[in-house]
Write a structure and sequence with these properties.
Length: 99
Amino acid sequence: MSAPVIVANDVARRARRRIALRILPYVLLVYVIAYLDRNNLATAALQMPHDLGFDDRVIGFGAGIFALGYVILEIPAPSLSSVGVRGAGSLALWSRGAS
């Protein structure tokens, strides 16, 4: 009776590894691009209000869109990480505080 459980665990482990190898590099690339865009927005926010007539609400909305992207990218972390839900949640909180 334990043989099907072992096979199911092996299949799940191989599926997680395949997902991690194919999807996570793309997610990392998108995360880096979003980080660079957010920094560019912060730099542009110094002159943008004067040149384009934006107020602080418009700039805050633009920065908030990047925060939404970070939240969406952190959703698959617990299922793909080897540290489990608790460790991935700690990592997510730490990364939000570091950024």
